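TA notes. Do not distribute before section.
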Amino acid sequence: MFTARRWWERFGLQLGLLGLVVGGALVIRQTQGELLVEFYDGITHPLEVFQTKPDRAEYLKDAKVQELQAKIVDLESQNKNIKALLKYVEKEPKNAPTIPARVVGRSADNWWQQVSLNRGSLEGIQEGYIVKAEGGLVGLIDSVTPNTSRVLLISDMNSQVGVNISRTGAKGILRGDGSVDAVLEFYEKVPNVKPGDVVSTSTYSSKFPSGVPIGKIKSLDLKRLPASVATIELFPPIRSLDWVTVNSKPPVAEPEDAKLGVNSKVTGQ
């Protein structure tokens, strides 16, 4: 009797747990687990009160609001650019037709070389027309279709523009550097210039009207051979062009280089 009692005290709990497990397994088997599911639901259901289920309608509403906000920001940016363009157009000579156009194409491979505009020959644009933006000269129309045109940017390394320094009249050739800067090679060995001087198109140029601003001198190298050079910070927003103006090319006039004895190849820029 004493031995059986001690055995029960030692193994009774284990037998009880074993019986509970076996009995539970039989019940789950007979009810196909429905009792267990109901038990789980009974425990977790009260906790669902504290949880927020994702509402699909609310999610779609938030997405629509974000889309509209993005459109508003884009329209505000366009409106700002158009206002700036209109102010720039007002400064243009009234006798020269000005055609506003928007940049609609730009490749990562030729970001600094060319852009495409949404205006073409149907709007009167021709090859050789001048392209400007707020800040000054942007480039030259080099090809045209009925509805589009392509611009050779002044930042293109193949671009050459005859320029002069507004303060002193020092002249040279500006070439693109494939970036927001350009390189100006002076005609004189030691030109009368300094950082900060404004650079504009030259009266010698046969491709561009004179006096169109381009940029300012950023740095100088007066020891460069065979001619001094300067790094020019471009005024127009070449990096992020949006709206531009297109103007007819300057009228053909008697080349001033013939009077001054300057090489015609240079002054034809």
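Switch to the second chain here.
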Amino acid sequence: MRIDLHTHSTASDGTDTPAELVRHAAAAGLDVVALTDHDTTRGHAEAIAALPQGLTLVTGAELSCRIDGVGLHMLAYLFDPDEPALAAERELVRDDRVPRARAMVGKLQELGVPVTWEQVARIAGDGSVGRPHVAEALVELGVVADVSGAFTPQWLADGGRAYVEKHELDPFDAIRLVKAAGGVTVFAHPLAVKRGEVVPEAAIARLAEAGLDGIEVDHMDHDEATRARLRGLAKELGLLTTGSSDYHGTRKTCALGEYTTDPEIYGEITRRATGAFPVPGTGGTA
């Protein structure tokens, strides 16, 4: 089985619609794909309607969190999307995205970049607007060569000249809320140092004590030494280890299925989940 547990669609900051994403996942030879858009589940219905036969969809979301001043992303799988407390927190994060993006545009304009809110809104379309959409605007304007080039201290990285904070969950609250909604939590790309400051291992241990289920190990932002380090940490803390592409369509260079999760780990994730169940494809037409 080929299992990719971290992808994004146009419901957040990917370039494939949810329907396109599941069709592309099937074409890439995946057996299981998780749709984990940022702080939203609104792409799930379209993905399920289009789900090809032979492909299973894991519903989820990537939750924006912050601990001790450091941002982190928490992958949440197979939770009940209608559970009120978790739904309310996701809504708070989403509601903060537009004013935050507008504020980043304002900072960039002060720095002499001729970006406009209309340009960013056009790029975001119906998705939950975020930094990748602002980054793409910088690419369009020729300010940076690619989206990753915008995530530097000069521009949009945490603490960068045009960075603006947003509402984010405390990760301990995120774990508690996801578990209360019957879901499973995995810390996404925990040592992706190229993105900026990362959470120390002592904090990961605290999250494990609080009920964190796993950490994402095999990821494009982790080199071999980092993966080995994370596997050792996971063994020490009793955490599951996953692998995923973090696919964003054409917005990033990674391909669907570039990194995958062991079927036994996937089986354990589904065993622990009680809020929702993986959806088998029946030959969608949407």
